[in-house]
Specification:
- By secondary structure, the protein is α+β, with helices and mostly antiparallel strands.
- The protein folds into 2 domains: 3-183, 2-Layer Sandwich (Endonuclease, Chain A), CATH 3.30.870; 191-355, Endonuclease Chain A (Endonuclease, Chain A), CATH 3.30.870.10.
- Helices cover 47% and strands 21% of the residues.
- It is built from 13 helices and 15 strands.
- The strands form 2 sheets. An 8-stranded mixed beta sheet has the order 1-7-6-5-2-3-4-8, sandwiched between helices. The protein has a 7-stranded mixed beta sheet with strand order 9-15-14-13-10-11-12, with helices on both faces.
- Strand 6 and strand 7 (146-153) form a beta hairpin.
- Helix 2 (45-56) packs parallel to helix 3.
Length: 383
């Protein structure tokens, strides 16, 4: 997004919105009761209480545009942030617009765990709309200190204007995840690292899963490789990633149907909401491969397949963010995933045909006589 055009668009929008604030302040003196349509300024502790009360009764969505450096929205530090987490748990749609910078990346990553986040360069705004019916905006002083002042309004025309503004900004935003990758790509040069110590490899695998924001792909070349990872607590870690909205897909190579059924049964008992599939086609590799957020990949060699502990079996590991390396790993995984889907469909067909095997079903042809056909025959009979 070009900074110049962005600033001019925002300036025009602020002029448009500022005209409506004349109506805002004209309503301030008329505000008397929370049950009537009003716009009012709330100060002190009442401001915090009001916004928490509003958030507690949201049922559909919360749209908010803010600066992630503001102290009152620091992830994990305030009652307001705890209320955001509760909204996520209740299934409320959360859309936030922020300016993702190198300074705010850490906080933005935490916010992305709970909300859809869009990025706009140099955005300067602090307002939100709850369920499309209530407007709220925290007021801070020039030093970015929280002033405990809240502008609140539920006048239909005013809220509709603010919703229009937010929707416009949202349409102009780019996914925050893309901006974060762009920043981090510029901060970190392409690398390919070789890791020899199994403990260091395991720690790295756990760290990149914990930092995942979008997707985790894992290919296990054998069932034993999967079981070793399971014993190390990998599934629990992936389950937590899934809870924060990360798409997790696991692909396991198996030699026979019995092994697949036993593995799936044990997996189902743990009730992880992870998409897991199997492939019987022989693999050209014996390495466990992991791709996270389409940004980094980790490949781990196996020295001794018969051992049960990861430390006793893990060989050299390769960790890289090289675009060509990551793309290659993704391509291999997706190809095998498609193959596993086709295998699954073929098995369903086999079960279906086996189900009706032995039944003497006769071929029958059904023909529907359309009204037009009947009329044609009636006219021919009259002639």
């Amino acid at each position: 997004m070009e900074v110049g055009s962005t600033q001019s668009e925002h300036f025009a929008l602020w002029i448009y919105i500022s005209r409506h604030f004349i109506d805002v302040w004209s309503h301030l003196t008329a505000a008397t009761d929370s049950d009537v349509k009003q716009i009012q300024m709330v100060v002190g502790e009442e401001a915090t209480d009001l916004i928490l009360h509003i958030m507690s009764r949201i049922t559909k969505k919360l749209d908010y545009c803010f600066d992630p450096r503001e102290p009152f929205i620091q992830a994990g530090n305030t009652p307001l942030w705890n209320a955001v987490i509760q909204l996520k748990k209740r299934g409320v749609r959360l859309r936030f617009i922020i300016d993702v910078t190198q300074e705010t990346i850490s906080n933005c990553k935490e916010i992305i765990r709970y909300a859809e986040v869009g990025h706009i360069d140099l955005i300067k705004a602090n307002f939100g709309i709850a369920d499309g019916m209530e407007y709220l905006s925290y007021v801070t002083d020039a030093n970015k200190q929280f002033a405990k002042q809240l502008l609140y309004g539920n006048v239909d025309s005013f809220v509709a204007t603010q919703q229009y503004l937010f929707d416009y900004l949202w349409s102009k935003s780019v996914p925050a995840k893309e901006k974060i990758r762009e920043i981090e790509k510029g901060m970190i040069r392409d690398f390919i690292e070789t890791i020899q110590e199994p403990q260091q490899t395991q720690k790295l695998a756990f760290d990149i899963i914990n930092s995942s924001m979008d997707e985790v792909l894992i290919l296990f070349p054998t069932v034993n490789a999967f079981r070793r990872a399971e014993n190390q607590g990998l599934l629990e870690l992936l389950g937590k990633a899934r809870e924060r909205g990360v798409n997790v897909r696991i692909l396991i190579h198996v030699n026979d149907e019995k092994t697949r059924e036993m593995t799936q049964k044990k997996f189902n008992e743990k009730n992880f909401k992870i998409n897991m599939q199997y492939i019987t086609k022989d693999l050209q590799t014996t390495m466990t491969t992991m791709v996270v957020d389409q940004a980094v990949c980790l490949s781990i060699e196996v020295n001794d397949e018969t051992k049960e502990n990861f430390e006793d079996t893990a060989g050299l590991a390769t960790y890289s963010n090289s675009e060509s390396t990551v793309s290659s790993c993704i391509s291999i995984f997706e190809t095998l995933w498609i193959q596993s889907e086709l295998d699954k469909q073929n098995k369903i067909k086999q079960v279906y045909f086996q189900l009706f095997k032995g039944f003497k079903l006769k071929d029958e042809t059904y023909r529907r006589r359309w009204l037009s056909e009947r009329r044609t025959k009636q006219m021919q009979a009259k002639e």
